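Reply to thread "Modeling small-molecule complexes from scratch"

Following up on the discussion above, here's a worked example others can learn from. I took a protein sequence and the SMILES for flavin-adenine dinucleotide and predicted the complex. Inputs first:
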Amino acid sequence: MNRFEYVRAGSVAEAVTALGEPGALLKAGGIDVLDRLKEGLVAPRRLVSLEAPELRTLRDDARDGLRLGALVTLAALEAHPAVRGRYAALSQAAGHVATPQIRNVATVGGNLLQRPRCWYFRHADFHCRKKGGATCYAQHGENQLHAIWGNGTCAIVHPSTLATALVALGAKVTLSGPRGPRTMALEGFFSTPEHSLAGENVLAADEVLMELHLPPPAVGTRSVHWKQGERESFDWAIAEAAVVLELAGRTCKRASIVLGAMAPVPVRAKASEAMLLGKVIDPEVAALAARAAVAKATPLDKNRYKVQIFETVVARAILRAAGAA
Ligand SMILES: Cc1cc2nc3c(=O)[nH]c(=O)nc-3n(C[C@H](O)[C@H](O)[C@H](O)COP(=O)(O)OP(=O)(O)OC[C@H]3O[C@@H](n4cnc5c(N)ncnc54)[C@H](O)[C@@H]3O)c2cc1C
């Protein structure tokens, strides 16, 4: 590990100033940053520890919705009664991440901005496309856990479990930098490898993610997050789905379905959403919608199995959200 300066930033403004130096890297909970330091993937000249108290708050208001500071921990998010009640998919997603010890430290912002788990990207000896090389080693290599869609340039899957639920719940994200704050739909915050190979989002090096804002759910809204891993204990997902349904009785008035661990960005299953509108949700309707979610999959040599898993996960999540499981 290289020697670096350690700066504690007690406010967003201090963090933005400290990030203005070339070679500066922000740390929140430090779970992913520490891994990358030890793996030799990053060698910052300055590590900026984000310790702004204003980013630790979680506020829920019936009219305004949910406001989540970037430094809220996953444990606090999972346990919050309002999140459990009104944004169940988000609480479930937070509770599905890693282990209780990690969730006590890991933050909302850090979870969304953690770097991909692709073992070629994570290995210092592989100079893959994401690191400026010419080859995506996963495309013809060990691609069991890689993308089954959008994998033509780089086959990472987006690593954030929270992102799947937050996009499905219609979250907006606010960033702050030297040019002031900007707010955008979280769905548009993530960028595909075709748009940006080096990063996974539009955050600039001197910007800080400050807050997520979720609109209040409409009457009759129910949401579910379903994560399928290789095992029940800690690990990233093989397939995950967040399903948000607005129901009148058992008839679907609005559907939002987002898939994680499928592609380099969270994927909205638009065809599946459209198929649920105006329908009474039963196992047959859910199965058809789930099939539509994987219809355009382009699996690689060793991850074809993920297609069936996604189909099952989506069908189960729809049925559970509809109260029909
Ligand atoms: C065994 C294990 C299992 C795991 N399983 C899962 C899983 O199933 N699902 C899942 O989603 N994750 C999983 N993780 C990953 C873990 O959840 C993330 O590493 C963690 O959430 C990162 O949060 P952090 O606060 O520690 O971020 P940090 O490590 O501090 O930061 C991560 C990145 O985000 C940037 N960053 C952080 N906060 C901000 C901010 N406010 N503004 C701008 N940039 C910022 C940092 O510069 C850094 O690049 C697992 C990790 C382990 C070790």
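What I'd highlight from this example: The chain has 13 helices and twelve strands. The first strand starts at residue 5 and ends at 9. Questions welcome below.
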